[in-house]
Amino acid sequence: MAEGMTGLVHKYLRHDKKFPHIWCPGCGNGIVLGSLIRAIDRLGLDKNKVALVSGIGCAGRMTTYADFNTLHTPHGRALTFATGLKLSREDLTVIVIMGDGDATAIGGNHYIHSARRNVDMTAIIVNNQIYGMTGGQYSPTTPYGSKTTTTPYGMVEHAFDISALAVAAEASYVARGTVYHAALLDQLIESAIRKKGFSSVEVLSNCHTQFGRRNKMSSPVKMLEWFKENAVRMHATSKMKPEELQGKFIIGVLADSERPSYNEEYEKVRERARGISKEPNPPARCEG
Amino acid sequence: MSARKTERKVLLLQGNEALAEGALAAGCRFFAGYPITPASEIAEHMALKLPALGGSFIQMEDEIASMGAVIGASLAGVKAMTATSGPGFSLMQENIGYACMAETPCVVVDVMRGGPSTGLPTLASQGDVMQARWGTHGDHPVIVLAVSSVRDCFEIAVFAFNLSEKYRVPVIILSDEIVAHTRETFVLPSPDEIEVFDRVTPTVPPEWYLPYEDTGTGVPPMAAFGDGYRHHVTGLTHDERGFPTQRSDEIDAFMRRLFRKITQGFHEIQRVETFMMDDAEIAVIAYGSVARSSRRAVIEAREHGVKAGLLQLVTLFPFPRRYVEKVLNQCRAVLVPEMNIGQISREVKRVRINGSRVETLNRVDGRLITPREIGDCLIKMYY
Ligand SMILES: Cc1ncc(C[n+]2csc(CCOP(=O)(O)OP(=O)(O)O)c2C)c(N)n1
Ligand code: SF4
Ligand SMILES: [Mg+2]
User: Fold this and answer.
1) Residues B173 and B314 in one domain
2) Averaged over A90-103, what is the pLDDT?
3) Hey, which end of chain B has fewer CB within 10 Å, N or C?
4) Total structural domains in chain A?
């Protein structure tokens, strides 16, 4: 395994200049990057045809290290750049890495609309429940009651459920994993990339430095144990009572549906505009 | 050749439509935007025309997203544009800065309306001149062009794309509500009459490619994502390879190259038009729809024996200093009429070296400055 992983590191990470990386020792971002390159390798994608797009934050730095076409965009805007890329270069597999603040605070609107629009791309949200890079301020996913540098007396807002948001906006594929359940994460990312349309993979990840340290989980191990103890597999939920699910989070595939991607729909628009398509314009449909 | 000439079409177009046509003629194949008066017709025209050309139109969730999508498309090797008005232009500033930093060619149209804030959605203004120059944070050069007629809208759109491709910069076109919605007949040039410049792409093997290398022109060749030149693009200040740097020598070289590539191109970037300037003793310096009023005013003033002329600024930034200086040296007085309280007149005064007289004429009530108003001023200044 180690040898296999070392091989993958050489194959997919940039060798020169950009190492050592900026992440704290034990940071979950490394595990997410590992899962991502294993998934890409299993899919057999050509590195020249992969575009990795990210926003700003610790998670956003992933693009610096991976040897693809990489695009590090302003805070929250990664999905918008990715949309332009994918519409202009169909042959690219577009994968977007964002932090929780990136995707749901400053970029929240882009996230919802990307899910709704269904452009063929994969969003991976590294949810460490905190603003890691800027020094541990609260994010929209910081749990109620937590201590952060901007909630010194405890968090009084309620957290977003990122994946529920994507399900509500009808993304084609929605999944949640954690950095503790790495094998599952590999599978989730692989399926998400394979899926046509917009896929979202939320990854609960440890930021022991900024979140754990202030919330009685100062080591990576303690945080991983917390993920292990509170994660419930999707298939197990049917046998559980709502009270049992209190304070837990569900991991696995949360939504998986077939819906033509924006790209497929727009190809039809091109054909209609050229007068090639015999297909009439789609009937107006009330989706209420 | 002759068969192609027949492709010339006479059209009755409004400024916004002509601008969209110009963009298409320049090779624009991607448009992302968000509806706003008085710019929406540009988006509507692109939505109609792009799909049959194999391009893409998309209406994004806001102007921040529109500008992001435009940059993404450009990085994929496609010429891309967005169009908006004041409120949307404010939202675009963040990503316009990104395009400056990552040297991503693109064209941004701001059809000016009254501001600040929601202002006057259906009335004209020239209030965004300095925002076009300095709207995004950080020290940076920028190219800003102004249009004054339907013909201009077409031609300047082509010029804007050519400059953006050649210098790898966002180019901003300032239009205004009057130019945007005025309909005029216009002879659509045939494709072979239009000079189109496409960005230079690398010829070296991928292992040798330095995406932000200094070159003689200061403009590095640009590879598209997906073409085998895997590289990194970031809004962080970066080295020649595109990776973030904190080294002062690399930062300094990068920043100076950004400016130098534009400075070296002044001769072709700075475009002006002159009208009756040969023997002029008094001149109007104007741009946009006010330049048209000024042209009329010059003719009328001449009928009153005033030796007047017009310097019309097509390029507002980099400020065409040498042309303005020449006019200041030649004339005993200069009038700068603007639909703001004085944004370009400040630039004119900034480059004035000999203490020549610079007067301003300003309207901020959403109405065009009339030829009569300008003419009266010229007569008063002359006698
Ligand atoms: C427009 C803008 N506002 C604020 C910042 C400062 N900033 C940088 S990273 C960040 C938050 C990062 O949090 P998150 O997205 O959760 O990523 P993490 O660092 O936790 O991986 C902020 C607010 C910025 N770069 N840009
Ligand atoms: S601050 Fe947190 S998220 Fe950022 S590198 Fe350190 S552990 Fe990881
Ligand atoms: Mg975070």
Assistant:
1) no
2) 98
3) N
4) 1
Question: What is the DSSP-derived secondary structure letter of residue A60?
Answer: G
Q: Are the C-beta atoms of residues B246 and B342 closer than 8 Å to each other?
A: no
- Nearest-CA residue for ligand 1 atom 23 is A134
- In contact, A94 and A51? CB cutoff 8 Å: yes
User: What is the rounded average pLDDT for all residues in chain B?
Assistant: 96
Q: Which domain holds residue B105?
A: 2-193
Nearest Cα neighbor of B155 from B22, B5, B46, B267 is B22
Q: For residue B158, give the CATH number of its domain.
A: 3.40.50.970
Residue A286 lies in a domain: no
Cα B38 to ligand 3 centroid, rounded to whole Å: 39
pLDDT at A288: 47
Residue A158 domain-assigned (yes or no): yes
How remote is the CA of residue B69 from the centroid of ligand 1, in Å?
Answer: 20
> Quick check: ipTM above 0.90?
yes
Q: How far is A18 from chain B (nearest CA, A)?
A: 8
Same domain? B287 vs B163? no
The answer to whether the predicted template modeling score (pTM) of the entire model surpasses 0.80 is yes
Q: Is there a single domain that holds both residue B151 and residue B17? A: yes
Q: Picking from A65-69, A236-240, A274-278, which range would have the lowest pLDDT averaged per residue?
A: A274-278
Q: Where are the alpha helices (DSSP H) in A89-181?
A: 100-101, 108-117, 162-168
- Ligand closest in space to the Cα of A129: 3
- Asked if residue B316 belongs to a domain, the reply is yes
Interface of A with B in 51-110 (CB under 8 A): 51, 53, 63-64, 67-74, 77, 79-89, 91-92, 109-110
Beta bridge partners of B83: B109
Residue A82 resides in a domain:
yes
Do residues B165 and B105 lie in contact, with contact meaning Cβ atoms separated by under 8 Å?
yes
Tokens 């104007």 correspond to B286
B280 and B163 in a common domain: no
Query: Distance (Å, rounded) from C-alpha A121 to C-alpha A111?
Result: 12
Token pair belonging to A72:
């590090």
